[in-house]
Amino acid sequence: MKVSVQSEDFDLASELAGFGQAANTGATVTFTGLVRDDTGQLDYMEIEHYPGMCETAIAKIVDDAATRWALTDFLVIHRYGKLHVGTQIMMVATAARHRAEAFEAAEYLMDYLKSRAPFWKKEVSKDGTKAEWVAAKDTDEDALDRW
User: Fold this and answer.
1) CA-CA distance, 137 to 116, in Å (whole number)?
2) How far apart are CA 53 and CA 66, in angstroms?
3) pTM for this prediction
């Protein structure tokens, strides 16, 4: 069981080594988010966070998810700093007795990380003329409504 907010990249295979090995685990789900370029103009995304507050907020929602879905294991990694297109931003892994619990818990965690975790994201264009903070999206808020 792990929550990490870090600047350095992570290796999926290393992070998943030994994950979800409890005897009562019947399913594991993993998700990795990448920096994407919707406009064709993005050079990188700068992600900022408030150290301490961020980890505490993520740990709380992970605890909520672990209780709600009786998770046997979980892993949340979220990066900060200057991240170029195609690089890993975050990873969520959940393990539970049944696949529905593992999938639902993973989606819950991803929805929370996208909309409520205290990160601030700025997109910077390839030519350096545009640097804009990413605003919250209605679709992200709508995703939270189902929980």
Assistant:
1) 12
2) 20
3) 0.92
Contacts of 18 (CB under 8 A, 6+ apart): none
Query: Rounded distance, CA 83 to CA 81, Å?
Result: 6
pLDDT tens for 25-77 read 999 999 999 999 988 999 999 999 999 999 999 999 999 999 999 999 999 99
pLDDT at position 77: 97
Q: Give the whole-angstrom CA distance, residue 51 versus residue 30.
A: 25
Domains of the chain and any CATH numbers: 2-10+19-129 (3.90.1170.40)
| Strand (E) or helix (H) holding 108 | helix 99-115
Are the beta carbons of 99 and 76 closer than 8 angstroms? no
